[in-house]
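Example 3.
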Amino acid sequence: MDINYILNITLTMLQGAKMTVLVFFIVIIASIPLGFFVTIIGKSRFKPVSWLVNIYITIMRGTPLILQLFFVYFALPDVPLIGPYIELERLQAALIAFILNYAAYFAEIFRGGLMAIDKGQYEAAKVLGFNKIQTFINIIIPQMIRVSLPALSNEAITLVKDTSLLYVISIAEISYVAKTAVSRDASVFPFVLAGAFYLLLILILTLILRFIEKKFNYASKSL
Amino acid sequence: MSIIEVSHLKKSFGSLNVLKDVSFTVEKGDVIAILGSSGSGKSTLLRCLIDLEKIDDGTITVDGETFVKNGVYMPHKIVKDATMKMGMVFQHFNLFPHMTVIKNLEKPAKIIKKMNRNTIREKSQMLLNKVGLLDKADTYPDQLSGGQKQRVAIVRALMMNPEIMLFDEPTSSLDPEITKEVLHTMKQLAEENMTMLIVTHEIGFAKEVASKILFMSNGEILESGTPDEIFNNPKSERTKLFLNNSF
């Protein structure tokens, strides 16, 4: 294995890493607000809405992401009525599946975060004169984020690795590049390199998440 | 005119009648200690006054404003106007953990009262100074002792310029040593003629500071009167028993 080969494969894999990072960011940026929105409407007193939210979360968490990916990419165009109007590029399909899936997990995390907030916080806010919206924005959300962050971080790290599923619909991310190279060159080196890439990405992400957690860690001395 | 008038207040949780036909009045400047064993309805009574619990029947008037009449609540704005005349201090402080001490004081004043920055800052510093916590302005609640937290909670309520202060077992989660500092702050307030309703187990404090005692048992006010009347001359057997057990 000469140095040129290593350099070459690293460069190709960098292209793959670009795709991985792109998918990661789009999914994170879209699914966190969507998840939060799902949490909010899940609290709706209008029963059909909270049922729908429950069904959505159950399906998303109860079936493998890879199946959801297949469904959006292969099966959705065959669904009667709406199917014919759907023409999804591979990447679009992948993003839709990932965003829907991750939003469900984030919704559950936020729900847990809300439940962790003492009811005394709502009462204190009320007797001080905060209305419901003011309470939510000023008192509840900041605490909810703080409580949810460790679990959110975990999901974010999982997401980096989950992007390797995109391999199954031939999107050229890290794993796809690695597999192609392994088949072509009859060497397992690309697999090792791919592992190193994931490790590096997650290392960077972990550092960023630590920094964010620190920012929100108002109660650093206890809790 | 009395600053608080409560008549025929009834409240139940399911089949449990927590308050059965409670009536009493509070005059401006009164310091009222509400005594009674656990489950007698003391805390629920305070919570009803400030609309943390909805009552089933009865009338509550605060500073001339009737916000619930014969169990029917007035429009939201009237309820809010009436309850905003009161500040409340909780057993578990309920400070906002994500805000520093000074933010805890200033944020509500800024958002609700829309006072200007300088007025707010002056007032928050004056109040913190009064309770000896000016040096803690920039710390977070979790870094304070229980007594410090409760004093912050008291001045946070005072920031909103209440006419009346409600204390729901303010020292029940504090150890005796620390209880003193909180009681000291409350005594200061009483000396400034703040109208106060205090649900407490601190009999000694009630005796010393209260102008009037309400003794509750089983969802009713069994006895009310000056500390002298209640402590030295209790009328009911139940009150006697409670006081005997408390000393």
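The first helix of chain B runs from residue 42 to 49. DSSP finds nine helices and eleven strands in chain B.
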